[in-house]
Amino acid sequence: MPILDLLKLPSALLVLLFGFQGWSDEGMWTFDNFPSAQVKRKYGFDPSRGWLEHVQLASARLAQGCSGSFVSSSGLVLTNHHCVQRCLEQLSSEKQDRLSGGFYAQQESDELRCPGLEVDQLLQISDVTARVQSATKGLSGAQFHDAQKAAMAQIEKECTTNRDLRCDVITLYQGGRYQLYQQQRFQDVRIVFAPELEAAHFGGELDNFNFPRYNLDAAFLRVYRDGRPARTEHHFAWSTRPASEGELSFVSGNPGHTHRDLTMAQLEYERDVGLPNTLFRLYEERGWLTEFQTRGAEQRRISTARLLRTENSIKGNKGRLAALGDPAFFGSKAVAERAFRAKIDRQPARRRLYGVAWDAVAASVAALKQIRVRYVALEAAQGFQSELFSFARQLVRASEELPKPNPERLREFADSRLPALTHSLFSPAPIYDELEIESLTHSLSRFREDLGPDDPLVRKLFANSAPRELAETVVRGTKLKEVQLRKSLYDAGKKAVDASEDPMIVLAKTIDPDARAVRKQFEDKVEAPEVKSGELIAKARFEIYGTSIYPDATFSARLSYGAIKGFPEGGKEVTPITSFRGAFERATGKEPFILPKKWLDAKPRLDLDIPLNFCSTNDVIGGNSGSPVINKNAEVTGVIFDGNLASLGGDYGYDGRVNRSIAVHSTAILEALEKIYGATRVAAELRPNPRASGR
Fold first, then answer.
1. Domains in the chain, please, with CATH?
2. Distance of CA 620 to CAs 3, 257, 338, 478, 629, Å?
3. Which of 19, 143, 278, 668 has the CB geometry, 3.0–4.6 Å to 612, for a possible disulfide?
4. Tens digit of pLDDT for each residue in 467-513?
């Protein structure tokens, strides 16, 4: 592109063309490759190796898709309210709705265990690239996939020396690097405090992904070991000094998945196929959930958490689609790819080695288009949306996979994965027939429509039944709601599962051969070529750019840096900090701007000028929910709960002018604990204690 044309591009697009720039706060960096020198140049602070190790060990991951942090020596974990909504819903009943009404354990014995919840602490990172890549060298297709799977399974098995350790081989740079993450696993996780839904979700969908905000989207859990609060030497101290505009901030968390390094063929698939179809499914789900909520108070209680997740997913995916639908943004990605490939083509040796990768990826995308509908419906189980069906599939597949040697199993049944699988499978969380039937009915209807009435499996499944009839038969007839039955089937293995006449087990057994077949096609024709080609593209990037680039997010531990800063919107500058006063001014008493009664009663006691929420330039994405915001002293100044509208395009790129993360302020959390909720036990645990800093 001519220099004159480059000068016409917005600064954000120049970043996409030429990579990381010193003035940008872009990057979700791994702890072993954090750009401390860049932080020092821009902000005057040099994060030391010891500082980074402490931050890593004080951070946490909620295995169900969120982040958190240890904030006391007694296993207290800070996260978001929306990260514990499922737990609160599971611990509720018709008589006591802890999701809507909130929860506070007055004493330790009142802390309630969250069914199926797991918290992980990253202990160590090891590079295993050479070992994985040597196992797959010279292989392609099914052989590549099988060799890679076997190598990963063996590495994880060697690392997992006891049930309390979780070991995962993490793929970075689209296969250019493989790292082993050894994590401390906590499966006894208990809820300590959560505010009312009205306070945590104040503003509802109208305010979602917007700023200014006025939420108390925060909650506290505690991890236990052997029935007692776990000792957590490394934990963050709590800052009671309000963080101010321009202050340096770090976010330590587990961003879900970004796609900033995808090829144009992959991005076109996302824009034209993946995202539109995902949105269509989510719109349908929101529709039936909304109708379900009108049936009564109990139906509303048992479906609220799911509806909130669905609405959040809709808005997030709309933002991603809008980013890819922007001609300037999408065009910049094309220019960046051409510029990168031109650098490769200048050297014949590089061209011969790396040039084939993009065509291979394009071929894998074409293969995905051919099997997408069947893969999504069967293997991804979008045609069978039911917790009970999920249990049935796990039992059916466990009976087939566990007798095999560890390297030959499906990845989710490797020895290292079994503690997490059984923790979920044997969860005592309640299951509601009416919601299960409704969910399964709608997904079965979509399954039949997508595959067509003449598909052999469709004909076999439905025979003389309609989707609702089939859903009612299997849900009302199954005994899988009984935890003990699930345990007995799991322990008894293949003979017992084969003999089972439980209708949900029968359903899972019926579709499993077709699901496995399409999974095999996906692994051989789509996944293996993409990973193999990703390795080549990553090697080319390393040759040209070195390690000054960060990998796409993979729901693994990352650290970003930035500053508390506003952003331009609608011709004016949005200020980066809101207060309690703003929340009361915004409250109307009508949804979604209702403040709980406890807030209204506490208003005379509150310092209304205390900061409530703030935004910063930290680069975050879904999965960062619950991440601590810390200052250079490794003190908690807030907890991430959202991003602004511009950040929704962060899946594919970062624009430092307008991308912002949004957090609840640490001083607001203390103010609320003490003056609104009387949660003095938790507040006292957070108060700074120099002897318990853990650093």
1. 11-118+187-259+551-692 (2.40.10.120), 264-545 (no CATH)
2. 32, 10, 27, 42, 11
3. 668
4. 999 999 999 999 999 999 999 999 999 999 999 999 999 999 999 99
